[in-house]
Design brief:
mainly alpha, 8 helices, 48% helix, Sulfotransferase_dom, P-loop_NTPase, transferase, EC 2.8.2.-
């Protein structure tokens, strides 16, 4: 749907290109490791989507503290409402429907789909899942970075 990227081909073809690192931003592992390692040199806060789904208020409060701010509970609640997946999916400024279809073609797929974790299980075969698991272990080895699955 993002017309600025090359055609992804079939799911099988895209997965192969992903594992080979032939996608936007290059190899996933190097991209993630490089940014993760910057936390030692730069003032970076990492926020994980699964944590946002689990407790949006807690994660927004982490961001607020990271920024050196102190918001009231009411303000944090309003931020939670406006940044919920449901609200953002309806908002043309966050769902990209305000952008020309020559750039983001929503007739192919909406930019914001379901907002859930684990939907990959509905798309990967067992063999693909095992292959990606091996890729993940290889790419993240040697770091303390862990993702929730």
């Amino acid at each position: 749907m993002n017309q600025l990227h090359p055609d992804p081909g079939s799911w099988e073809e895209y997965l192969e290109r992903f594992i080979q690192g032939n996608v936007g931003f290059g190899p996933w592992g190097a991209h993630v490791r490089d940014w993760w390692n910057l936390k030692e040199q730069k003032n970076i806060l990492y926020v994980f989507y699964e944590d946002m789904l689990e407790d949006p208020s807690r994660e927004i409060q982490r961001v607020v503290r990271f920024l050196g701010k102190d918001f009231s509970e009411e303000v944090v609640d309003r931020i939670c409402q406006h940044t919920s997946f449901k609200a953002m999916k309806k908002n043309p400024l966050t769902n990209y429907t305000a952008i020309s279809s020559t750039i983001m073609d929503h007739s192919i797929s909406p930019f914001m789909r379901k907002g859930i974790c684990g939907d990959w299980k509905n798309h990967f075969t067992v063999a693909q899942s095992e292959r990606l698991d091996e890729y993940y272990r290889r790419e993240i080895s040697g770091t303390e970075l862990t993702f929730r699955f």
